[in-house]
Amino acid sequence: MTDLRWSDVIDALDPEWNGYLPDVVVGEIGLEDWQSLLDLVEEQGWPHEVAHAKGAPWPRAAALFPDGRPLDEPPTLSVRPFAGVQVNVYPHAVDEIAFDVDLRELEGQVGIDRLCGLLRLVGSRLSRDVPLYAEGDLAAPVLRYDLATDTFWHVEAR
Hey, is 105 helix, strand or coil? Predict the structure, then answer.
């Protein structure tokens, strides 16, 4: 059973309104949560790499945030949870996990099902709600996974 229908969210995920790379930001987390997310990627067997560092080992959270602070030039972590879908994870702050996904890679019902599955998996792993925002606009999410109810909600297009 699907969580959201593509026809219901197509306006909220319209790249003209939302941008092609909507932002997922999960706040109020810590170093342990970062490590849990990094472990999840490996446990799921998703192809992953440190962008622009071919062959570099998958990092540990402590290496991304020495002394509890991000690196001066943090790497982008590229993950492919589904064939043809790349998620870019940005370790810019120890207290939030931020990543984006390209909407051009998530078309139709299969795309929204994959997106919902990914948000649910991340939310369950981190024990947090997972909001998705329009690209560059963190004022209010356009889609959210609600952990308490294990459901999704979205906003109508403006």
Answer: helix
